[in-house]
Write a structure and sequence with these properties.
20% of the residues lie in helices and 27% in strands. The longest helix is centred in the first third of the chain and has 26 residues. The chain has one helix and six strands. The protein has a three-stranded antiparallel β-sheet with strand order 1-2-3, with no helix packed on it. A three-stranded antiparallel β-sheet has the order 4-5-6, with no helix packed on it.
Length: 128
C-alpha cells in the first residue's frame, strides 16, 4: 500500500508542477515585449534633415607637412613630439591651423583643413 501511495503522491506532484507552470506562463506573459537592447534608444524620423560637415572649396588642400619625432605615453597623459615641440590631444600646432585629435602608439591623428591625417612616428635618418 505504501508503494501505491508513493506512486499516487508522485503523480499528484507532477500534475501540480504542470499546473503551476501553465499558470505561471499566463501570469507573466507580456502584452508588449521588452525593447531590444541592441537598437538605439531613439529613432530619427525618416524625413529629418541630417547635419553634414561642409568643407569650403576655397581652402587650399596643401598636404600637412609635419615630422612626428616621438610619442610619450604615461598612465594619465599621451603626448607627441612634433617638429621639436611637445603637444597633447586638443592642442593646435604652431604656425598651422591643425589640431591634434588623437594620439596612439606610433600614430598621431591631426585634423588639418577639414581633412584627418594620420602621421606615423618617423625613425631618425629614414624618410617614409
Amino acid at each position: 500500500m505504501s508503494l501505491l501511495n508513493r506512486n499516487m503522491t508522485f503523480r499528484l506532484f507532477i500534475i501540480f508542477c504542470v499546473f503551476v507552470f501553465m499558470l505561471e506562463s499566463k501570469v507573466f506573459s507580456q502584452e508588449k515585449p521588452y525593447r531590444d537592447p541592441f537598437k538605439p534608444p531613439f529613432r530619427r524620423p525618416a524625413n529629418a534633415a541630417r547635419k553634414s560637415t561642409v568643407i569650403e572649396n576655397n581652402i587650399s588642400k596643401e598636404p600637412l607637412d609635419v615630422n612626428v619625432e616621438g610619442i610619450v605615453v604615461s598612465d594619465y597623459l599621451k603626448q607627441a613630439i612634433i617638429d621639436g615641440e611637445v603637444y597633447k590631444v586638443g592642442d593646435t600646432l604652431k604656425n598651422k591651423d591643425a589640431k591634434i585629435v588623437k594620439i596612439d602608439k606610433g600614430i598621431v591623428s591631426i585634423m588639418y583643413n577639414g581633412i584627418m591625417y594620420e602621421e606615423i612616428v618617423r625613425k631618425r635618418g629614414r624618410e617614409e
